[in-house]
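User: Predict structure, ligand zinc ion.
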Amino acid sequence: MFSAIPSLAQQKFYLDLNDRGNDIFTVTLLPQKLSEENRIYQFASTAPGTYERMDLGRFVRSFQAYDKDGNEIETKQESLNQWSISQPENVEKIIYEIEDTWDTPVDSDYVYRMGGSNIEDDNVLINGHCLFGYFHGMQSEPILVKIDYPDDWLAGTALKLNDDGYYEAETYDHIVDSPILLGNLTRESTTVSETKVDVFTYSKTGLIKSSDILGLIEDILKAEDDFTKGLPVDDYTFLFHFQDVSHGAWEHSYSSEYIYKEDSLTERLKQSIRETVAHEFFHIVTPLNIHSELVEKFNFEKPVMSQHLWLYEGVTEWASHILILRDSITTLEDYLNDLHRKIMYSDNFPDSISLTYLGVNAVDLHDQYINIYMKGAVVAALLDIRLLDLSNGERGLRDVINELSHKYGPKKPFNEKTFFGDFTAMTYPEIADFFNRYVKGTEPLPLKEYYEKIGINYVKEGGYDSSQISLGIQVGFDGENFIIAKVDDESPYSDILKAGDIIDKVDGEKLSMANVQKIFSQISKTHKIGDKIEMTVLRDDEPIDLELTLIARKNNHIFSVNENATEKEIELRNAWMRNL
Ligand SMILES: [Zn+2]
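Assistant: Predicted complex:
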């Protein structure tokens, strides 16, 4: 009897980063053996967890295939992201040039920096999908990547190097899930329980070092460890990039990357880094260990989104705040203030979109997407209270999430369709009703009723706060422009401004990602109620110049501790405030 070990095709990529001119990467690919079914080379249309159109084919500048004698084989761009190869079985080598996404102008769908690529004199960021594609039929096969770079550089990534100096990825999904940051970096390492944690930092002028970052986040990593009763990964890599603009962060299974404007570590920047790390790091629980089959093997050609975004992002955002409360890193008052802010923010969005609908349509609902971090987190908080209530304070959402994390795992997806039922079967029949009403449905959230159970008062309409200025409008970002998301009924401008108007200029300054925070925080520091600001909005491409008077801000959704709570309510609150 013979037993054969299947020999998987290996695709080897080479990059030479010693040549870093013109914001272009030259990628050399040795595909080993191709056949007719592999004739399409596919670049990604998007990447998991980004919910944005990327269409990396837009950045490809040349694409050539060669046989073993160095003769060129005919190739053709079939569509935005696909190149076909006329005789795939004869291909020995493919060479293509692909521009970096950070510095290459595009008309629309700019790729957020944390999900993009950058090649500069002193640093390089590689997100797998920005450089590498895959042959149809080979998405699940291993990839090896060799990178030549200057001797004095460091390379930070969760990928492992093999003995021959190649980074090894098990699949195309794995390489996309494993960014690589190289350059003049600093590095710092620690161990949290059993997990080895590395921090790599690029800071344009050397202002911020990995040791600063690690000092800033170590208590959060410990709180995560307490919350998950042992972290579910052996290694984890943080990649920080400080340069000229803040874009945010992107999570991966064994790493995460953070794009910030370089600045001294002010309290505000520290707070932002801590909150962002608490969120991104929790993704090692979900989606890494709790995800559906749609996440397990992502469709890079025509993405199909999971309805369980409420879990991946909503529960994660909830966890990132409750776990620091439960480790006494934050106070109950701060926790409740954050809850208040989330619900205030969530008021900007229409009530008619359910969390499951938002999940499935996340790419098209780009301007609604951020609500998953707001309403999604609030719904998770309510689910926690509901579970604690039903179990008499013995089993909350943390406990169920930890059970799910053990039941499933990185390579064992849950069933996209039956998950609500499976979750309900693990808990209480009443949870089906909760999912129907607040996750799949759009019923008003039972904030007063639920928070009362843990001795916390909730007031929906809190009157006006004369210490805060406002225009009675909610501002949103649609991926390209700052827009008026909603005009409050009470706003003096409800007849003048319309939802959908693009805010072009404020006090003569053109609004951009780079200056929006500065402009609005400047106004809130220097202006008072009754003062005027100038604003230019674009409606149907026509500019409208306005002079607007600032009013007092409405202050809704106020939480406070009920000093007259019953013993039972206090008992449940105590259970809620700690890791059981
Ligand atoms: Zn997230």
